[in-house]
């Protein structure tokens, strides 16, 4: 049995190890005999084993070949199986390599998805940060809506004017927290809202002024000139500083009501005195950019504001006098008692004598009056007897120290009345000094301005920095900032392609955006274009308003005479394209640094574009040093940088001294000349001063 076991025990090799047939055969042939077991063909026992005795014999050498052949067949069978296993192994290896490759690709894809997700989350976070001003504006809108609801409660007789005044003060003094707590309550009915307001009876510390503008324009609902953007820009800036601002406007037929949120008519009417009688008015309320706006619509004199324009009618005095008186009557009826009543230009200057001669004792003892003048060239001279239309006494006002005009003493000067009867007068000018305004720009009011010079304050215009900021300007192909100016070159190339100008970052582009060309010396401008175009300077002109009669032809001749491959004209103002022109230009050629309508010089500085004067030798650019203490920060800055720089010198500086030029440009981009900066600060100081009187 030991020999049988040895013979039957075929050596085991490791898996995939190739067996050596030669050595196997040698091991067998070295044996002289094999033990062979024979079995009888008799019956097997019940266990399946043969019952016959086992017979053993030694085989002869001749039988070895037979056995070796048999073993060879076994070896071949095993080798075939081994080859099959080896093939399966190679296939498995290839599958494993393929799976590993797929796993690596999957890991790379997961990493890419993760990076995209992180980038998306960063973008969402950036958008949320940019959205914060809008969130704040929504909260301000809530406060404005609350005030309008309080007005409705008074007009409908639900509460008295005394309680209404307390509730308004509660809203004004509790700004942020109250807006959060009462957000859902704005949509409740009057009884529920009043209960909630009374619940918040504990007043917080006052942190701002309540200002009401009585004016004739507001962007974008009634936008004609620079007053509209001033009202909206300043009001938003003041509210961001913690003040509460409201606006009262006439309900013109030409109002852009699509821009008014929640416009609704208040059910109750109020009456206003005019032409010897009381006349009914309808009240409409809404919110514009977070500012509560009240629209006054006459019932009997409905035709006063039914025209398709804001200004330019023979009865403008009657129209705006009615509106001014109605605004004061509305304040009395609604119980509003603002800290400051802010009036504008001659159109609402009649509020001044009305306020102090008729209304001050009707609960306005704590209210003060402030007048803003965009300029003194429009003053409104009228017959004295017309003052009686709104309840004023002409005999008391036709005096040199009141409304009597200095040059035409038989007439009353409405703008002069605003100056005399206001506690402060703010003159809007970015570039002129107080002394020059009094002495040279009074248009006949020089004596009055000199007498009241202590009232006068100069404030610069501003721009909306949420719209005009190169670091987040959606109208630009690529944003940029003072820290990374790469995007400005992209904007220049995009501008050149858009207007089909020869491309190249080395080209100097001069932009010219004018609200009109009435104050532009076209001959001077033509000379500048010819001189600079020979130096391969590119010019882009955009004229943004309807030309007055008689000015279209000179402009057309100018366009024909300066026709050149490096000159382009855009015949109408395009807001989107103006962003690209200001960002893509190196220089903005300005007819004046005082640009109240478009604020091009202010925006140019923010976008890294140098504002350079057209008329360097004219007096308008030579008065920044006068009364420097009264100059605005903008005029002080522009005087030290670009005011005395002609176009040719600016071109030389860009080409020959780029490092110094870039330093100056980047320094300017860091300045803030928006509504939120100096303009708002000057107004807050003025409000503070008049409240202390």
UniProtKB/TrEMBL annotation:
The keyword Iron-sulfur does not apply. One of its GO terms (molecular function) is alpha-1,4-glucan glucosyltransferase (ADP-glucose donor) activity. Pathway: Glycan biosynthesis; starch biosynthesis. It holds the Pfam family Glyco_transf_5. Gene3D superfamilies: Glycogen Phosphorylase B. It catalyses: [(1->4)-alpha-D-glucosyl](n) + ADP-alpha-D-glucose = [(1->4)-alpha-D-glucosyl](n+1) + ADP + H(+). Its EC number is 2.4.1.21. InterPro entries: Starch_synth_cat_dom (IPR013534). Residues 210-447 form the Starch synthase catalytic domain. Residues 38-65 are annotated as: Disordered. It comes from the Eukaryota. Residues 96-130 form a coiled coil. This is starch synthase.
């Amino acid at each position: 049995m030991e020999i049988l076991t040895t013979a039957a025990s075929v050596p085991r090799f490791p898996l995939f190890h190739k067996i050596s047939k030669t050595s196997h055969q040698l091991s067998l042939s070295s044996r002289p005999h094999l033990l062979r077991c024979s079995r009888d063909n008799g019956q097997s026992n019940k266990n399946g084993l043969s019952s016959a005795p086992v017979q053993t014999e030694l085989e002869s050498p001749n039988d070895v070949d037979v056995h070796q052949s048999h073993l060879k067949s076994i070896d071949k069978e095993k080798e075939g199986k081994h080859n099959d296993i080896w093939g399966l192994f190679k296939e498995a290896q290839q599958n494993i390599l393929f799976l590993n490759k797929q796993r690596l690709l999957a890991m790379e894809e997961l990493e890419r998805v993760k990076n995209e997700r992180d980038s998306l989350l960063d973008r969402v976070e950036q958008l949320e940060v940019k959205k914060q001003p809008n969130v704040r504006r929504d909260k301000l809108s809530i406060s404005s809506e609350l005030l309008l609801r309080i007005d409705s409660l008074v007009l409908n007789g639900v509460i008295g004017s005394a309680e209404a005044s307390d509730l308004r003060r509660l809203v004004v003094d509790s700004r942020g927290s109250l807006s959060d707590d009462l957000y859902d309550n704005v949509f409740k009915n009057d009884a529920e809202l009043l209960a909630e307001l009374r619940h918040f009876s504990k007043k917080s510390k006052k942190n701002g002024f309540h200002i009401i503008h009585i004016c004739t324009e507001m962007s974008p609902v009634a936008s004609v000139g620079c007053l509209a953007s001033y009202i909206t820009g300043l009001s938003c800036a003041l509210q961001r500083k913690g003040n509460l601002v409201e606006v009262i406007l006439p309900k013109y037929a030409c109002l852009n009501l699509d821009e008014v949120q929640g416009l609704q008519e208040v059910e109750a009417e109020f009456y206003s005195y005019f032409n010897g009688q009381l006349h009914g008015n309808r009240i409409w309320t809404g919110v514009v950019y977070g500012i509560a706006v009240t629209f006054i619509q006459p019932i009997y004199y409905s035709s006063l504001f039914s025209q398709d324009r804001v200004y330019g009618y023979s009865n403008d005095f009657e129209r705006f006098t009615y509106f001014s008186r109605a605004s004061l009557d509305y304040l009395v009826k609604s119980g509003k008692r603002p800290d400051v009543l802010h009036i504008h230009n001659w159109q609402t200057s009649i509020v001044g004598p009305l306020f102090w001669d008729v209304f001050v004792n009707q609960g306005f003892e704590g209210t003060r009056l402030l007048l803003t003048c965009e300029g003194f060239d429009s003053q409104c001279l009228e017959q004295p007897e017309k003052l009686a239309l709104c309840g004023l006494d002409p005999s008391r006002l036709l005096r040199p120290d009141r409304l009597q005009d200095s040059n035409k003493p038989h007439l009353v000067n409405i703008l002069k009345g605003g100056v005399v009867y206001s506690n402060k007068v703010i003159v809007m000018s970015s570039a002129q000094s107080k002394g020059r305004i009094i002495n040279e720009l009074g248009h006949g009011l020089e004596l009055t301005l000199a007498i009241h010079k202590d009232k006068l304050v100069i404030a610069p215009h501003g721009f909306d920095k949420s719209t005009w900021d190169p670091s987040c300007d959606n109208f630009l192909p690529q944003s940029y900032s003072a820290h990374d100016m790469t995007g400005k070159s992209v904007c220049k190339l995009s501008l050149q392609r858009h207007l089909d100008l020869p491309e190249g970052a080395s080209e100097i582009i001069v932009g010219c955006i004018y609200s009109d060309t009435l104050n532009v010396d076209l001959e001077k401008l033509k000379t500048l274009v010819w001189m600079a175009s020979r130096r391969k300077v590119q010019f882009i002109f955009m004229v943004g308003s309807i030309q007055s009669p008689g000015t279209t032809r000179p402009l057309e001749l100018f366009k024909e005479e300066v026709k050149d491959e490096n000159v382009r004209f855009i015949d109408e103002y395009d807001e989107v394209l103006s962003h690209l022109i200001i960002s893509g230009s190196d220089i903005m050629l300005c007819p004046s640094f005082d640009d109240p309508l478009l604020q091009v010089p202010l925006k140019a500085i923010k976008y890294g574009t140098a504002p350079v004067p057209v008329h360097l030798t004219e007096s308008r650019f030579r008065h920044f040093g006068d009364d420097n203490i009264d100059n605005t920060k903008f005029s002080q800055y522009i005087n030290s940088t670009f005011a005395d720089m002609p176009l040719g010198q600016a071109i030389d500086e860009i080409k020959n001294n780029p490092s110094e030029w870039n330093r100056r440009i980047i320094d300017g981009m860091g300045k803030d000349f928006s509504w939120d900066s100096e303009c708002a600060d000057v107004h807050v100081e003025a409000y503070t001063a008049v409240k202390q009187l």
